Structure formats: structure tokens, C-alpha cells
């Protein structure tokens, strides 16, 4: 494995930088650690504000932004193959050097100010101060909390750092784009953060606390319609004709997946009781007149289940629900459709979300998001391939394929258009989780390449009353979506 010099602050390094080092050491790289004495520590007021918030939210896990007393220096006697500068301020040398920029700033302190002000940071990996070799658009899940938002961004700083090292070492750098003019090496320190925190972050936190006192944190509703012609994926608009699947208000339905089976329609949903905080999978049969019947639970595990992708293959009906909180992706087979399901195989270990199946080029593929240990579950796309449904499933060589809150997380099954195009509904987290959906076209897919087009947003005009949507599916004439509703406690 290549030898790497990793440059960290001499004074008050951050935990995220230590994790990058540990991750690369575990991957077998020959790591030397160098100190950069010019890297400034974060102001104490920033650390105090973030620590105060974490106390409010009862977060006892070590923060990625937490300052450490030191990361011990461990230099080498010979030149490294390349350097990873985690300070952004290392002196240039003859050794290729990768550094991160946060919204153009070289200091990770800018993350705290950006998140406090309500903006969504972009991280660039820059080679030798001149060429952008990769970018990350981290998802910020809890925008009312600056401390948790900073964690989400720094989590993807870890993911991006490890990813670009793998790409550089494997000669797989994807981008070759000149950077913007000379980066800023500093940010407005305590004053800039304090102003953003007092005028933006604290009011957001107060508004969210008031909202949660009166309303459910999240309450999704499922919409359905029977359509003969082109659907949402073709028109890129919701349009009209939607009906709302009724709920009693004490639980919600989300992540709808329909299946037309033996001339009948069945709708599988995430069924989330607010009292338990743990969802099960329920089925909603439709009668001959297209009227939904009472939902009933068909699959429950000790952990949360959602995204019940159902499909027919090899003479059986299968379900591939999300179970990221259980730490594994399990394939189920219907033993008595639609009510009885038996686990068939564990396909992938890890916090895999919304794994979506595709048959393409003589292989099976899964597109999903991976939490990668920390941060959001919605911004890091990973792809796997296998010769058969039960595996073995192999990670794509480009994993993570992208880090992008605008299109990383699937929002429904792949769609094959009549003109031969293959498209994927993708969640757009720009306005927060469940903020919207787009349609991306699959441009290229094989064991060396994954390319999706930028998503085309779905216009929400029509008679569907909940424009913040995050799932779209269709089976035969039955088309389904979901949207988040404001429901009082």
C-alpha cells in the first residue's frame, strides 16, 4: 500500500481527523503523522456552544468536532507517495498533497459558522491547491441544531478523505477541474460564529421546539391513484387524481410499494406507530373497485423496518425492506402471499438504507445509501452487484459513488421507460429530509463505472396536499407517493 503523510494540527486537533487516520491505518496504508503548528485552534466560544447543545439533546457519544489534547506525531525518514493535509495550511512540497476546502475555506472552523447560519456546506478535495478531484454535498438532518449539523458535515469530511485517498492510490481520480481563485485561509472566528448562532441557529432551535410541542415530529401520508397513461416518472409532475390512504393519526404510513399480483393490487407500506417509535411492514389490499382495505401487519422485527420493496422473480414474491437500524439488509420470500414472509438471506451487513434492486447488463445491482459510521443516512450512494438474488453481493469499486444530499438516496424502484431509458427516483434533501423528489436517468453502469444524470425535479402542482414527498412507485395502473403532513399531537 502507498505511504501517506497525514498532516494534523499540532494544537487542539479534532476527533474527525483522528478517525481519518484510524480508517486509513485499518485499510493497510503506511501512515506517518506530521504536525502543522500554524493551524489555529477553534475559539472556545464555538466549542462551548456546540457542547451546550449536545447536552440539551442528550448526546453522550464523542463528538466528531470535539478537540483532542493531541494526535501524536510519527514522522518518517523517507518521502511519502503523497500527503493528506487535514489542516489546509501545510507548506507546499514536492509531494502530491490532497487537502479539503469547506465552502472555499481551508479551515474546518468554517463548518460551524456555515451550519449555524443555516447554509449547507460543500466540501472539495483539492490536489496541490489547484485541481478539484472530488466534491461532497453533505446532508444536514437536524437543521435546528448547529451541533448536530456540524457532526453531519464532518462525518462526510471523513468519508471524502478516505475515498479520495483510495481513488488516488488506485489511479481512479474522477474530476480534473481547476479550483476557484486563491482560497481563504481564515474565517470570521468567534464574532462571526456568535453572530450566526445568536441570530440564526438559536431562533431555529426555538421554532423547532415550539413546533414539536404542538405537532408530531414527522407524520407521513400515502397517496394513490389508478392511471392508464403516463405517470409521474414520465411527466415529472404529480398532477391530479390522488386519494389519501386514511390513518387514525396515532401512526403513519410511508414508503409505499405496490404490487399487482394475480389480477389484484396490494400496497406494502412502512407502518409507524408513534407510541412505539418502531415501524413494521403492513399490507393494504385493494378490492375490485379499487378501494383500499384495512391495513394489516405482515412483517415485524425487533428493529425498525421501512421501504418494503416487493417484486416477483424466479417464481416467487420477494421483499427487500430497509432495516438499517438492525445493521443488515435481509431478503425475505413470501411463504403465503401477502401475509407470511420468511428470511431468505442476509445480503449486506451495515447501515444500508433504501436498497433498490435493478437487473442490468446480465447482473443484479443494488443502489443504496450507507451511513459510513457517522452522520446522515441520506447522502452517500453505494452500489453493489451480484450474479443472483441471494448473492454474493460485491461492493462497487467506486464506492462511495457520490456524496450528494440532492440525489444519493433512492426514492422508489427503478423505472424502465418505453424508449428504453432506465430511471431512478431520488430524494432531494436540499430542503431537509423528505423535501422533494427528482428523477435521474441511469447513463452508464458496469463494474467500473456508475453514472446518473442530474435529477429532474418532480413538480408538485396538483391535488396532492403534501408537497414534501420522498417516495414514488407504480405497478400496473396503481401509482403511489407519500408526503409529510403537519399533524397535531
Structure description:
Strands 1, 2, 3, 4, 5, 6, 7, 19, 20, 21, 22 and 23 form a twelve-stranded mixed beta sheet that branches. Strands 24, 25, 26, 27 and 28 form a five-stranded antiparallel beta sheet that branches. The chain has a four-stranded antiparallel beta sheet with strand order 10-8-31-30, with no helix packed on it. The chain has two domains: about 5-215, Formyl transferase, N-terminal domain (Rossmann fold), CATH 3.40.50; about 215-485, Tachylectin-2, Chain A (5 Propeller). The chain has helices spanning about 15-25, 45-55, 110-115, 145-170, 190-215, 230-235; strands at about 5-10, 30-35, 80-85, 95-100, 125, 130-135, 175-180, 220-225, 235-240, 245, 250-260, 265-275, 280-285, 295-300, 305-315, 315-320, 330-335, 340-350, 350-360, 365-370, 380-385, 395, 400-405, 415, 420-425, 435-445, 450, 455, 460, 470-475, 480-485. The relative contact order is 0.11. It is an alpha+beta fold. The model has no long low-confidence stretch (mean pLDDT about 95). Helices cover about 20% and strands about 40% of the residues. α1 packs parallel to α4. It contains six helices and 31 strands. The termini are far apart. One of its GO terms (biological process) is xylan catabolic process.
